[in-house]
Design brief:
TIM Barrel; 8 strands; 12 helices; alpha/beta
Length: about 325
């Protein structure tokens, strides 16, 4: 069957779609839109940066606004049974959601308008590079989403170690840039609170943390993740904004395998130790979520299956409750 170009782009590969999971807010779903950048892929991927990440190199390439609207319409139909029950919507765009060259503002507005119609939605999280987290953009997005929900801007920090983040992963994210983004989020939040503006969604930050990322070893991976989490929480508290921590155990992607051929995913024991230590270190100062989805990018499916089988039940329990006690049971069973 011949499909118009926009229709072909609309249909996503099933293996690339996120599944619904539970987090502290309830039912959580992440969706991925295409990248509208001039060269069709995430500009950071095109410049050979972000070596661990395959997002932006796959089916989300060479989009424009019409194709993205078609994709979003397809996603609305695909997840039709989910939307009435959804509590937390996460939006990616194979790049930076807040960069207008990668995602047309009108497309993001359409997504937020739809989100505002969902009866049980409590939170919307939008992924962005730190350089696009600007007060004017945050204000516009927060006003579009409206005052009955909260907003989180996701920043892919990955590691607070400057060498790991910028020299190994080549994120090219300076501390000054990260802190400026958090300060900009705080400016919008504090302005809304000071003016008693109940018509906008109050923003906060969500920091991504990789457990066992390249540049760390079996001996240092736990400490790196813990220090990254503590840095994130301390920074958010400095500017009086709420913070979520998205913890992602490293997996071997195509780009990761090509550049870090000898670096494997962390052990189950290291993962559990990292999460337990982070939970103990930050307490209720952050909402912690462990993300295990890989959008079909994992290049070691057998290793993933074994790893997933050992950790998924404990992870689901932790994501829903915030209680890490079950991790001791898993560790004991593994001994």
């Amino acid at each position: 069957m011949h499909l118009p170009d926009s229709k072909k782009f609309a249909i996503a590969r099933t293996e690339s779609l996120f599944k619904t999971v539970q987090d502290r807010r309830g039912l959580r779903l992440a969706i991925v839109l295409g990248n509208e950048a001039p060269h069709g892929i995430c500009p950071y991927a095109m410049r050979d940066n972000c070596h661990h990440c395959d997002i932006g190199l796959g089916e989300g390439v060479c989009f424009d606004a019409a194709k993205n609207l078609s994709r979003f319409g397809w996603l609305q139909n695909y997840y039709a049974s989910v939307w009435p029950r959804l509590n937390h919507l996460v939006v990616y765009s194979s790049g930076s959601v807040l960069n207008p060259l990668e995602l047309t503002p009108a497309v993001l507005t359409a997504v937020l308008d739809f989100a505002r119609s969902l009866p049980k939605l409590r939170l919307v999280s939008l992924e962005s590079r730190e350089s696009f987290v600007r007060p004017s953009v945050i204000s516009r997005v927060a006003a579009t989403l409206g005052g009955e929900r909260e907003l989180r801007i996701i920043i892919g920090l990955e590691s607070a170690d400057d060498t790991v983040r910028n020299q190994v992963l080549r994120k090219n994210m300076s501390r000054a840039g990260i802190e400026r983004a958090v300060r900009n989020i705080a400016t919008v939040r504090q302005t809304a609170l000071a003016s008693h503006d109940n018509a906008i969604a109050l923003p906060g930050v969500a920091m991504n943390v990789i457990i066992g990322c390249p540049g760390t070893s079996a001996a240092t991976s736990v400490m790196d993740a813990v220090q990254t989490a503590i840095y994130s929480v301390t920074l958010a508290e400095t500017y009086s904004i709420p913070v979520d921590l998205n913890l992602h155990p490293y997996y071997p992607s195509k780009r990761g395998t090509a550049r870090f051929a000898n670096h494997s995913r962390p052990s189950v024991e290291s993962t559990l130790e990292a999460v337990s230590s982070i939970a103990q270190s930050v307490g209720d100062r952050a909402v912690i979520f462990i993300g295990l989805e890989d959008e079909g990018h994992d290049q070691n499916p057998s290793g993933r299956a074994e790893y997933f089988a050992r950790i998924v039940q404990a992870t689901d329990y932790f994501n829903r409750t915030g209680q890490s006690d079950i991790f001791r049971q898993v560790s004991s069973a593994s001994a």
